[in-house]
Fold:
Amino acid sequence: MEINWHSLYFLLFASIACIFALAVVFTANVVRMAFYLMLSLAATAGLFFLAGADFVGAMQLVLYVGGTLVLLVFGVMLTAQSPFISIRTGGGDWVLAAIVGGLFLAVLIPAAVQSGASHENFPKNVAASEEDAVSADTAEEPASEPTAARIGLALLGAPADGSKGGSGYLLPFEIISIHLLVVLVGAAYLARPKRRATPEKNVAEES
Amino acid sequence: MNLLTDPVTISHYLIVGSVMFVAGAVCMATKRNALGVLMGIELVLNGANINFVAFGSEILARNPHYRLGLDGQIIALFVIVLAAAEAAVALAIVLNFYNNHATVDVDRADELKG
Structure:
C-alpha cells in the first residue's frame, strides 16, 4: 500500500487541531483551556503549511500562537484566582449546547463535502485544445511555489499572481495599520491602572 | 484506508474548519469564564481562516476554473491581524471588569451600570 505522505501529515495535524479544539470546549479549567488552544492553533499552522500557504502558516505561528495566545495567557494569569479557575456550567446548558452544536455540524459538514466536490469535478466533456494542456497539468500533484514575495507585492498594490486584473491589497493594508494603532491606544487607555475593588465576601471566604 | 492513499481535497480542509468553528461557537455559548468566551472567539476565527486558506491554496485547487489565486491567503492574513487586535481590546475590557467587580464570571455581568 503506497502511503501518501501528504495525506498522512494532513491526518495528523487535522486530528490534533480538532481534538484539542474539542478539549477546549469540554475542559473546565481555564489554564488548561489556554494550553489546549495553543496546541490546536499550532496544528492549524501545520495545516496551512500543508496547503502550500507557507507565509500564512509562518504568520499564524508568529502572530497568533506567539502573540495573541500569549496575551490570552497573560489575561488568564492575571485573573486566575482560585474560585475562577474552574467555573462550571450547569447540566441543562450542556445538553442545549450539545444539541445546537450537533445540528450546526450536521448542516456544515454536508455543505463542506458538497462544495469541495464541485470544486473537484471539472467537466470532462470540455475537450478543447486549450483545456487539454491545463487538465494535463492538474493530473499530477501541482507543485507549490513560495508565496511570501507574491503576498508582499499584493500588499503593496500589485497583484502578483497573474490573476484576473483587479488591484492589489494596498488600501486594506493601510486601513489595518491605522486600525492597529487605534486598537493599541484604546487598549492601553482601557486597561490603565486604577484602584482595584476588594473581592466579594463569599469569594473571600474560600481562601 | 483511503484517507492515507488518496490525495487531500478541499473538502477535508472544509470539514476541519467547520469542526473548529462549531467548537468555538459552543465554547462562546457555554463558558462562564470571560476568558473562555475569548478562546471561543479565537477558535471561530481560526476555523474561518482554514476555509480561506483552503480555497486560496494552489496545491488543493485541481479545477483550473476555480482558481482563487492568492486572495484567500491574503484575506486569512488580514483575519489573523484583526483577531489579534480584537483579542487585545477584549482582554482590556475583561481586565477592566475584573478590576471593578473582582470576578470574571460572565453571569455576574448582569448590571448595565458600571
